[in-house]
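User: Run a structure prediction on this.
Assistant: Running it now.
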Amino acid sequence: MRKVVATWWPLAASWLLMSLEMPALSAVVARMPDPKINLAAYGGVVFPLALIIESPIIMLLAASTALSKDMASYLKLRRFMMVSGGLLTAFHALLAFTPLYYVVVEGILGVPQEIVQPARLGLMIMLPWTWSIAYRRFNQGALIRFGHSQTVGIGTVVRLGTNLLVLTVGYMGGRLPGIVVASGAVACGVMSEALYVGMMVRPVLKNQVQHAPPVVPPLSWAAFYAFYIPLVMTSLLTLLANPIGSAALSRMPRNLDSLAVWPVVTGIVFMLRSLGVAYNEVVVALLDERGAYASLKRFATTLSLATTGLLLLVAATPLSSFWFAKISALPADLAQMAQLGLWLALPLPALSVLQSWYQGALLHGKRTRGISESVVIYLVTSAIILGIGVAWGGTTGLYVALFALTASVATQTAWLGWKSRPILRQIREDDVSTFRNEESRQLHPIS
């Protein structure tokens, strides 16, 4: 258990600090001119589209953690990262700087007209986002694989510190629109973290990766793509729910209010979900060690109860009013929307822990198809509920979207649990067998 905690907490700190980005950004933009428009532009257009563009490389962290076992494997993955990061950045530029933007944002998403131009400016500023994320996540995987997960947490401190510096300068200056300050802070943050991780990985490559025993058989492109393509589909389909959600919110009652409140509510929820998301790499890194099953499962149970309890404490006490009205600086009507919506997200922290437990087992067993299947279930569930909400048109879009998110994550988690059962059962049986053999040797030593 000590090893589980020691591996998890730097990653959790990293994810938690990263999750502070959206609340900090929302709190600053909400205190600048036209907060509703700028919050809706970032949360409803810029951030969802940026996530979709980066989706093919977002799982490089899991892939690098699992596969960067020697220098040859590391170099193969680095080649993939460089090419895919460059191509995706080119696509980002095509979307932000050409008329394709209006086809997507006005024609497909159908967002309120007043946020179209501010969102385009924000998307232009976010151009360095994708390549920086690819480089950072790939090298973080190598750091985790070779026992340097604490460096990941420090990198997130660098990113958040840069974010806060840019947000502060932009707010104090008072001349730039909120969308410019928000997008500039995020872009500068990811670039600074990528630079830091790049510097920190160099001695690890020289002193550890270079001397690691070669993988037998060597990692081939066929083996890599068989492992990674299901993960790409997983991230793509998962993140596709964000623009679908934006399109649905834009077509339901109180659309601008819902788009503005959405990043604020999901921001605080993700702070607690991030502690469970961080557990995925812990399971991948430790599940193949002898006796790890029981400790990993016990930790997952404890973390699920703790994170759910914390969110319940916020939702059921004046802490929610303090957070949304004072910290996030939402107007009274939007703060009330956020407080009511928070109850619909109550199961999400525990579900995130369980997802990491089950998904880590599937990654360990190299059965990533089950992960892709679970995301299809997630996306279909979300689309059905959002479609019903749009067709009905009888309630505020924020509540429909939050219910769709929770229901979709629940069905996805259930499928992951079902698909990972054979792997976890085999690991449990192997651990029990190992324990009994060791106990037998202690009771009957060979003279």
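The chain has 19 helices and no strands.
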